[in-house]
């Protein structure tokens, strides 16, 4: 199928809602960490990628038209080069709000993990944050740098910086889609996240 939309925003920036939105706009199926965890073969691919092996991107996303959230967001440089016609959506929120959301959801899982080779530990804790997930200021700095790096890489013709809570208008305008006759989806709030992680065995989602 090949990706036409690449989500480059960190987890906890509304990525699950964005996934649902893209699928409502018929730009799915959309890949997300929740698409990885139930499938041992997908977990194995991303574990290998977190250890430095380059996946076959066409195979990884063969059934998908879009991707958001980690693990795909970690590889935004590689994916944007491999799928040069794909639009890039950088989902963002206020940095303090983002950290609070991380601290209430993903960070406890990473801090309590006993599997140093899990996707969450290897890719997110170590890969994204350099192994330092105890320092709030460091994590916020990494979050802000990721935003700046992506915005410096792409022009407005290819990149949308999508602020959490912006609704349909900027997304549909960027993607050239009519605005659906339904509210923009909302999902994966902290309480909902906690219910979902009961089934997580390898890594967290955003």
CA-based shape: globular
- Order of strands, widest sheet: 2-3-1-4-5
How can the largest sheet be summarized?
5 strands, parallel
Q: Distance N terminus to C terminus?
A: 24 Å
Could you please say which CATH topology applies here? Rossmann fold
The helix count comes to: 11
Please state the second-level CATH architecture.
Answer: 3-Layer(aba) Sandwich
The fourth-level CATH homologous superfamily is P-loop containing nucleotide triphosphate hydrolases
Question: What is the domain total for the residues?
Answer: 1
Give the C-level CATH assignment: Alpha Beta
Strand coverage percent: 5-15%
What percentage of residues falls in helices of 4 or more residues? 40-55%
Protein name: Sulfotransferase family protein
InterPro entries: P-loop_NTPase, Sulfotransfer_4
Characterization of this structure:
This protein has eleven helices and five strands; from the N terminus they run E-H-E-H-H-H-E-H-E-H-H-H-H-E-H-H. The chain has one domain: Rossmann fold (3-Layer(aba) Sandwich), CATH 3.40.50. The model is unreliable at 199-206 (pLDDT under 50). The protein has 206 residues and is an alpha/beta fold. Strands 2-3-1-4-5 form a five-stranded parallel β-sheet, with helices on both faces.
